Amino acid sequence: MKHGGKILREVADELEKKIKSGMTTLEIDVEAEKMILDRGAMSSFKKVTGYSWTTCQPINEQAVHTIPSSQKLEDGDVYTLDIGVYYAGLHTDYATTFIVGEKKDDKVQSFLRKGESTLLSAIKKIKAGVRMGVVSQYIQNEIEGAGYFILKDLTGHGIGKELHEDPYVLNYLDRPIEKTKKFASGLTIAVEIIYSMGTEEIAYEPGRKWSIITKDRSLSACFERSIAVEDEETFILT
After folding, report:
1. What is the rounded radius of gyration, in angstroms, for the C-alpha atoms of the chain?
2. Cβ–Cβ < 8 Å for 202, 215
3. How many whole angstroms separate alpha carbon 216 and alpha carbon 132?
4. Is the preceding peptide bond at 167 cis, omega within 30 degrees of 0?
5. Which domain does 19 fall in, by range?
6. Among residues 146, 145, 124, which one has the least CA distance to residue 135?
7. 52-76 pLDDT tens trace
8. Beta pairing partners, 47
9. CATH value at residue 35
10. What's 178's DSSP letter?
11. Structural domains in the chain (count)
């Protein structure tokens, strides 16, 4: 998973540098698959039943699972690159959200910085023996404290032989911390913060299979890293 994660980050980082207004999300998807195959790995997402693409590419109010299409990116779009790699029988997953082009809105930049910084800080709290609720509560407090909304129907997840495994990694506290599970040494998970500017409610986008949007169509973002939990420290795989 460390090697697969290294491949994934190389591909994602290279892709991010190439993405600009005027490109279609399908063009980006084709390039993503080529880059993964060239490194001796495969697309994780293509192993999901019924999903035929290497990436998910939500834009603006689209939150997750938006399939590549002929839609062209525009300057100022809030764009998410969500991508996974399958290597040596194991999956890794990664997502980042950024503004396309040079049109940088300060309010949107603050919104995105909050999600990414919260994710990285939350990961530092994860080690064997810590209760998951500690991390869930931290994420919720940070995101909601900044005036944003956790999309509670969408969560992080275990990852390894399958792309999505138990346990779910919630971005909010749904029960007393002492009743939540403990992180165990050897656990591999994808911590995934999915949040919006205006609502915690989601909807399926009309006419677009797979795509989930914010119910009020406010801007959404997603930041995700695959990690491995060990006794003394946690390794970021992607």
Report:
1. 17
2. yes
3. 30
4. yes
5. 2-236
6. 124
7. 999 999 999 999 999 999 999 999 9
8. none
9. 3.90.230.10
10. G
11. 1
In the sheet that holds 62-64, the strands lie side by side as 62-64, 212-214, 202-204
Q: Could you give the C-alpha distances from 194 to 28, 118, 203, in angstroms and in order?
A: 22, 11, 14
Residue-wise pLDDT tens digits, 97-143: 999 998 889 999 999 999 999 999 999 999 999 999 999 999 999 99
What is the rounded CA–CA span in Å between residue 162 and residue 180? 23
Confidence (pLDDT) at 104: 87
In this prediction the pTM is 0.96
Mean pLDDT of the chain: 97
Q: What is the pLDDT at residue 102?
A: 87
Distance of CA 66 to the CA centre of its chain: 12
State the angle between helix axes of 132-145 and 106-124 in degrees (0 to 180), rounded to the nearest 10. 160
Closest CA to 214 of 78, 117, 52: 78
The C-alpha atoms of residue 57 and residue 63 are separated, in whole angstroms, by 9
Q: At what angle do helices 25-38 and 2-18 cross, to 10 degrees?
A: 140
- What are 108's two structure tokens? 């949107």
Distance from C-alpha of 97 to C-alpha of 115, rounded to nearest angstrom: 9
CB 45, CB 122: distance < 8 Å: no
Which DSSP state fits 13? Answer: H
Question: Is residue 34 helix, strand or coil?
Answer: helix
Residue pair 99/109 in contact (Cβ under 8 Å)? The answer is yes
